[in-house]
Amino acid sequence: MSDWISDTFTSEVGWTHLETLVDIGNRMAGSPGEREAMEATRDALERVGARNARIDPFEIQGWVRGDSAIYARDTTQSCIALPRSPAGTTSGELVDLGYGLPEDFDRDLSGKVVVVSSTVPDHYDRFIHRREKYYYAVEAGAAGFIFANHVPGQLPPTGSVGTADAPIGDIPAVGVSKEVGARLGRRFEGDEVTLDVTCEAPETDSGNVHAELGPKTDDEVLVTSHLDAHDIAEGAMDNGAGTAMVVELARALAAREDELETRVRFVCFGAEEVGLVGSEYEADRLDAERSNVKAIVNNDGVVAGRTLKLHTHGFDELEAVAETVSDRFDHDISTIPEQLPHSDHWSFVAHGVPAYMVGSVKEGRGRGWGHTHADTIEKLESRTLREQAILLTELTVELTRDDREIPHADPDDIAAALEAEDQAEGMKVTGDWPF
């Protein structure tokens, strides 16, 4: 076993692929850069020994950023449009709703332009997603939506609005830095402000990259990530590192292929950042064959911190596998049993498929540098990628063992868990409730 460990700890394959991805630049869903990332990832998987490397294309509603601004009295405040915001100009009285908790929207906001924070108070019992806050604003009649970062540093946040049924949102939406958000609330609350958003929404295409290793069994373990990133940054953490991890795991697993007792399929999804489109496409494509998916290892947020963090979605056997690997290597792995209905694993967990959401332990709440201009490669360390790849390689091999039975869940039990965790209400507001 030591040879594969030493090879992984000295490998440059994953980090080199990360550099390839971030140097592409714009990898927005449906863009030429996303296509370049697909092709580079397909080729990388083939080079490390995975078979049948290919791209499965699908159509999506694209979105291309233009210029945006907030006009307040005689000033122009810097902002960026949130992907899938509609184009347009809207004016209204500025209302600062602070954290933008559900109860903060319990008022008539007809014609108002609302400002909300990207975080929630430390004592609050759950995180309120951007899209949930956006649709509370829509339901309350707001004319415009301003999403203010809680992380200092002149970093306006991005992140999509819209739903699967209506990909383009209802009202103009922009992100502003913490500093601009504070200025708006301090100087202009109660004033009329104007949001001006320009963008285009062409029909385009994205795609999923596939490859595989191991025996040609009907059952399979999926090792996944997403290829796309928001257009304002390199997308190193979100999610170049996740796709680099998939390539590194494919290299390590190719060296251990004779140990795999179940087929391992690598899938790097397109169009995650605009509503999990690629993974939904794949989950629908599998349909009845979803029962053959033994488990999913979805990498989204790896390498950002040195300790792995695994959401296990209530699957006890996934918890047990993580504990086995942690004990075997005497290395901490943080596990969280709650549901996490964001990222590509969720397209399968909602149907009862066992899945990990693999991230990393970080300080603070929320995305940190993610979804901002600051999501760049120099904030990551190659040693962390290699260390985590060793643990995740072992985790994947363990999942393929014939004596590791991982029962699927009844979707009704997943729904009940979301209700018990107070997540259902927000998902119903955003149109993400699948039950």
Automatic annotation (TrEMBL):
Classification via CDD domains: PA_2
Matching InterPro entries: CPQ, PA_dom_sf, PA_domain, Peptidase_M28
Q: Domain named PA: which ranges?
A: 91-184
Q: Does Ligase show up as a keyword for this record?
A: no
Q: Which Pfam families match?
A: PA, Peptidase_M28
What does the UniProt entry say about where the protein is found? Endoplasmic reticulum; Golgi apparatus; Lysosome; Secreted
Q: Does the keyword Nuclease apply?
A: no
Q: Which GO terms describe its molecular function?
A: aminopeptidase activity; carboxypeptidase activity; metal ion binding; metallodipeptidase activity
Q: What keyword terms does UniProt attach to this protein? A: Aminopeptidase, Carboxypeptidase, Endoplasmic reticulum, Glycoprotein, Golgi apparatus, Hydrolase, Lysosome, Metal-binding, Metalloprotease, Protease, Secreted, Signal, Zinc, Zymogen
Kindly list the GO CC terms recorded for this protein: extracellular region; lysosome
Report the main location listed first in the record. endoplasmic reticulum
For the Peptidase M28 domain, which residue ranges apply?
208-390
Query: What does the entry give for GO biological process?
Result: proteolysis
> Which PANTHER family does the annotation name?
CARBOXYPEPTIDASE Q (PTHR12053:SF3), PROTEASE FAMILY M28 PLASMA GLUTAMATE CARBOXYPEPTIDASE-RELATED (PTHR12053)
Q: How does it assemble?
A: Homodimer. The monomeric form is inactive while the homodimer is active.
Would you tell me the protein name for this molecule? Carboxypeptidase Q
